[in-house]
Amino acid sequence: MQITLTINGETRSAEAEPRTLLVHFLRDHLDLTGTHWGCDTSNCGACVVLVDGEPVKSCTMLAAMAEGHEITTVEGLARDGELDPVQQGFFEEHGLQCGFCTPGMMLTARALLDENPNPSEEEIRVAISGQICRCTGYTNIVKAVRWAAEHEAGAAAAGGEAIA
Amino acid sequence: MAATEERPIGFGRLKRKEDPRFLRGQGTYVDDVKLPGMLHGAILRSPLAHARIVSIDTSAAQQHPKVRAVVTGQDLANLGLAWMPTLSADTQAVLATDKVRFQGQEVAFVVAEDRYAARDALELIEVDYEPLPVVSDVRRALDADAPVIRDDKEGQTSNHIFDWEAGDEAEADRVFADADVVVVTQEIPFQRVHPAPLETCGSVADMDPVTGKLRLWTTSQAPHAHRTLYAMVAGIPEHKIQVIAPDIGGGFGNKVPIYPGYVCSIVGSILTGKPVKWMEDRTENLTSTGFARDYLMQGRIAADRDGRIRGLRVDVLADHGAFNATAQPSKYPAGFFHIFTGSYDLEAAYCSVRGVYTNKAPGGVAYRCSFRVTEAAYLVERMVDLLAAELDMDPVELRMRNFIRKEQFPYTTKTGWEYDSGDYHATMNEALRIAGYEDLRREQAEKRARGEHMGIGVSFFTETVGAGPKSKMDIAGLGMADGAELRIHPTGKAVVRISVKTQGQGHETTFAQIVSQELGIPPEDVEVVHGDTDQTPFGLGTYGSRSTPVSGAAVAMVSRKIRDKARLIASAALEVAPEDLEWESGPPARWYVKGDPEKGQTIQELALAAHGTLTLPEGVEGHLDAEAVYDPPNLTYPCGAYIAVVDVDPATGEVKLRRFVAVDDCGVRINPMIVEGQVHGGLAEGAGIALMQHIAFDEQGNCLGGSFMDYLVPSSLEVPDWELGETVTPSPHHPLGAKGVGESSNVGSPPAIINAIVDALKPFGVRHVDMPATPGRVWEAIQSASGTPAPPR
After folding, report:
1. pLDDT by residue (tens digit) across B324-362?
2. Which of B54, B216, B601, B666 is least surrounded by Cβ atoms within 10 Å, i.e. has the fewest?
3. Would you give the DSSP letter of residue B579?
4. Is the peptide bond before B410 cis (omega within 30 degrees of 0)?
5. Residues of A in contact with B15 (CB under 8 A)
6. Are B736 and B680 members of one domain?
């Protein structure tokens, strides 16, 4: 079947079997390989994308079910070549090592900050708790998200003062 | 350009050069490789742990419209490829021919037009199995009536693989027989675990039928060793094999061995004339690729009543699974387990290790540690704590009393290791300071009085990392030395080519910083090339924390060769004798004329001269390139003091890891930010091993840890915010004084956490809890202990 999706603000279309999972559709049919495949059981979160702004494990969703929704992948995080504060935060705080979990972590962080611009460390840990990182031990991921919260455009204006 | 903390020239907290591509989702992992006409492979695996294969019918799969090839063990046997050598001089079936020996073993390989069709076709293959009795319990493997698993091996009449020992048994016996010593005995299993990197294993094989060249993109921590082994196994000439390890999504030892799937992808490409991708799923990863640990250890420790430790003995039964595929140097079938005397100055020590086959997946990989060092550190650090409990001594005091003293280095242990350096008392004291140890003990006393169960656990480890020397250490006969090549281009930009391969450790940054430190070239001007055997010099790869100790040293040495050559060029350019020139590390780093410091030239200036029209001194070739091979004179010996604080709920057995202090001494730190990241990651994995991770089997050999639903690894909620510290004792024999750090924290943390749990449960009379200390296990330990019953809640 022909599947047409809105991804990172663009309309993308490809032929795929109806059973095709969103993660495989993105990777194999649209060459958006920034979304990773890690476990098959919805435990690891390497495949997280945003569906209408909500983090979703793309191995749990058929590509066809995503029609009519706005999909954001890691390739859509940077705007006009400029890194999202979340991406910058992961860079500044050494929030990534092998990079395999990073796209999913960053998208979840983006969704968290959109809803809660000034999350506590505990709130960050809860937000990413459905995703696994085997490299960083999480401390620097938490710091990375805090960095992003503190450096969002208008963070200060919005009263989003940093938590020490 | 002036160096700053943010943009150091040389060592310092440089942000990672490799990050930008990962942040944008532009990394290239094996599964991201897409070649024209590429086909997809999938493996049919055995549902049984031990069974004779009566027949395999692939006809229905062959007829699937999208299937291009179906390969069985018999097909491989016809090509002489049904069996391959392991890293331990054993053999392993690529695809089973006679029988299957573990659940998940590879039986057939399908090549199809897409991923889904390949998996569909697996369902169409009919295999008739005749079940055989299963050896699941390692303690029964050598029973007289145990089925012989490896009846394929000539002369193999039992499941025995090897016996190995180290130390002096007679001396140990003498110490233990002393009437005055206190002896503590404990069985200490280190459970089977799996490294479980987030990216599973896989490969893309592209055999060009015209040129005969094989290109293999693969999840490999050791691309050069893999190339040589493929040449030996498959008979493809080595110069026609290019192994490319692109971006790797974590390794932790899992990606050191060669797996049947890689070989199958090569065979698939040869048979179809097309590139073939094979990418395993998580269950395949957990059930068939290299496991770690699985040591059943019987420990004995002897000490005088005043706490002077005198002897340590351990006898190990090692479960190696169905094929002995342990990754370690040939001379050491139990790896470096004989570092089990740890950080203590003992009178006598002895260990024996017996390896056996069982109907489980092969492996025995060094999971985020140097070969078997984690097992050794866990053993000694548990035994010392058991002894402290027996003597009613503070575990810190007992350790301090028995540490090898600073002035004793270099120190030769009773099992033959020569520790290069350390200041264990200083490292321990730093951990006590950061943790606020005295305050913690006071807090614990108050909580105990209230019936709350807080535990404080201490461990102190010494690791042995950075193998070779190559005269003593090898993988499959290949000596453990690593090469490096460095070219300085005319404009002063550099390309350094290394044999080791990052799986997230930050090689592209760290190795650029080494060149930068030695030559004064900014790290952003140094390109690090790695992971492609056609582009890099030979070497044994990244595992056992050997990248910085071995390859880092090679890069330092090759940089110094460049510096020496630059001196000769400077002598021509400045028209002085070479001995009249002096190097200053700057900034700016340069050769200058002694007594006339105004006259001098940087490496960048000299690079242009080397490529230009300057007449060079007699015997000096043009350009500014060099190569080096580093064969380490000894291993390096990082150490660390760790303190864990836990709270245990006796009603549920739940353990909360509340604090963790880790003070590491890994010698000189090239990039402290990266070092700290490595320590964080190892701590989380160590916490996972102590509390959650377990690849268990039932009596029929069914794997009970075959997915992330059953094999639990830590999330952000199970681990605390890590508290780090450091001491710096440079390695005296490493050119940079560095020791390696990627694995230390995974070695040191499990005993600290278990010691903390046992400490919390002391009021109940609990003296030991096995890993993983799940709520069920902790609760059972409380129930079965003979001490004070749990207070009412």
Report:
1. 999 889 999 999 999 999 999 999 999 999 999 999 999
2. B54
3. G
4. yes
5. 91-92, 94
6. yes
ipTM of the complex: 0.97
Give the domain extent around B206. 33-132+199-249+255-288
To the nearest whole Å, the CA of A51 is away from the closest chain B CA by: 17
Nearest CA among B678, B671, B670 for reference residue B640: B678
Residue B12 lies in a domain: no
**B321 plus B230 within the same structural domain:** no
DSSP A63-116: GGGGTTSEEE-GGGTSBTTBPPHHHHHHHHTT--SS-SSHHHHHHHHHHHHHH-
Q: Looking at the whole model, is its pTM more than 0.95? A: yes
Burial of A136 (C-beta count, 10 Å sphere; 0-12/13-18/19+): buried
Asked if B708's CB is within 8 angstroms of A43's CB, the reply is yes
Q: B-chain residues within 8 Å CB-CB of A101? A: 198
**Same domain (yes/no): B338, B374:** yes
Which of B22, B34, B713 faces A132 most closely, judged by CB atoms? B713
Mean pLDDT (chain A) is: 94
How far off is chain A from B707, nearest CA to CA, in Å? 7
Check the CA dihedral B515-B520-B523-B526 and report its sign.
Answer: negative
- C-alpha torsion sign, points B534, B539, B545, B551: negative
Give me the pLDDT at residue B327, please: 86
User: Quick check: B479 and B470 in contact, CB under 8 A?
Assistant: yes
Q: Cite the active site residues of B.
A: 221, 368-369, 743
3-class DSSP assignment, residue B177: helix
B713, B623: one domain: no
Which one of B200, B684, B709 has the shortest CB-CB distance to A137? B684
User: Do the Cβ atoms of B198 and A92 come within 8 Å?
Assistant: no
Same domain, A15 and A60: yes
- The mean per-residue pLDDT over the stretch B445-473 comes to 97
- Per DSSP, B269 falls in state H
Indicate the residue of B114, B197, B709 with minimum beta-carbon distance to A134. Answer: B197
Closest chain B CA to residue A17: B116
Rg (CA), chain A: 16
Residues of B in contact with A138 (CB under 8 A): 680, 684, 715-716, 719
Report yes or no on A160 lying in a domain: no
